[in-house]
Amino acid sequence: MIALENVTCRYEGRDRGDDESEADEHGADGGGTVAVDDVTLSIPDGEFLVVAGANGSGKTTLVRTVNGLVRPESGTVSVNGTPVEEDLVAARAAIGMVFQDPRDQLVAATVGGDVAFGPENLGLSHAEIDRRVSAALEAVNMAGREDDRIATLSGGERERVAIAGALAMEPDHLVCDEPFVGLDEPARESVLARLRDLHAAGTGVVVVTHDLRDLWGIADRVVGLADGRVVVDGPPDAALPDLAGLGVRVPEAFDAAGDAEGSTEP
Ligand SMILES: Nc1ncnc2c1ncn2[C@@H]1O[C@H](COP(=O)(O)OP(=O)(O)OP(=O)(O)O)[C@@H](O)[C@H]1O
């Protein structure tokens, strides 16, 4: 279980594109940008949660608090009952994170080397590392590709290697930040199928996105953010009316008789 309680995150300095008055409005002491504003949220084990919102609404900042990559200014983030800052290693073992651009996290020359990187740092035996690498590659439909060079992979394959690297840590939750950006249709479908399978096998999945179309039939719950605050929280169908105007894309069938108001993203 991931639990955020009254979490507020602020970046020092001026926001990209904010004017002075808006920055003042956001910050109690007038400094910086409040990216996450007093968020309280629980994410149970096994849940498929979509965190949706327009660019700049605070999605990335919010999910980065759960493994200590961003430290809140106030409030508490706990993983399995322990505050993240008290046990960063436990939080990072429990939550696998796949960043927006998988190139940011692929560290080795080969697929096998990359997926083994995390388990190696846990000091596991060779046999256990090999087992985890095989299982993680199988879970992303890349079984037996250990010796492939990262440089030769497509964007979708890199995304799946990044997911495998996170899975090799055997996390309770997998957090993917905009996993479909830049992928062509077959790659999108492949990543989506992997996320669906993982969820079916019991792993919690959190997907950050401004495009809910592919996730509609899969997500248990949608949390919508605007200006760092939770403004929508519920199952997709119940959340739908409140998602309009947040700048997120919903499936066309739900896009109110051709009303494109809620579909401002390209
Ligand atoms: N490193 C940073 N320094 C200063 N301000 C930042 C920084 N990172 C994010 N921000 C600001 O914090 C707010 C929330 O940004 P965040 O990236 O969390 O939102 P997001 O919803 O994930 O957006 P995107 O979809 O564009 O990634 C925005 O106003 C953004 O400009």
UniProtKB/TrEMBL annotation:
<dbReference type="InterPro" id="IPR050095">
    <property type="entry name" value="ECF_ABC_transporter_ATP-bd"/>
</dbReference>
<keyword id="KW-0472">Membrane</keyword>
<keyword id="KW-0547">Nucleotide-binding</keyword>
<feature type="region of interest" description="Disordered">
    <location>
        <begin position="1"/>
        <end position="33"/>
    </location>
</feature>
<feature type="domain" description="ABC transporter">
    <location>
        <begin position="2"/>
        <end position="252"/>
    </location>
</feature>
<dbReference type="InterPro" id="IPR003439">
    <property type="entry name" value="ABC_transporter-like_ATP-bd"/>
</dbReference>
<dbReference type="GO" id="GO:0005524">
    <property type="term" value="F:ATP binding"/>
</dbReference>
<dbReference type="InterPro" id="IPR015856">
    <property type="entry name" value="ABC_transpr_CbiO/EcfA_su"/>
</dbReference>
<dbReference type="GO" id="GO:0043190">
    <property type="term" value="C:ATP-binding cassette (ABC) transporter complex"/>
</dbReference>
<protein>
    <submittedName>
        <fullName>ABC transporter ATP-binding protein</fullName>
    </submittedName>
</protein>
<keyword id="KW-0813">Transport</keyword>
<dbReference type="GO" id="GO:0042626">
    <property type="term" value="F:ATPase-coupled transmembrane transporter activity"/>
</dbReference>
<dbReference type="InterPro" id="IPR003593">
    <property type="entry name" value="AAA+_ATPase"/>
</dbReference>
<dbReference type="GO" id="GO:0016887">
    <property type="term" value="F:ATP hydrolysis activity"/>
</dbReference>
<comment type="function">
    <text>Probably part of an ABC transporter complex. Responsible for energy coupling to the transport system.</text>
</comment>
<dbReference type="Pfam" id="PF00005">
    <property type="entry name" value="ABC_tran"/>
</dbReference>
<keyword id="KW-0067">ATP-binding</keyword>
<dbReference type="InterPro" id="IPR027417">
    <property type="entry name" value="P-loop_NTPase"/>
</dbReference>
<comment type="similarity">
    <text>Belongs to the ABC transporter superfamily.</text>
</comment>
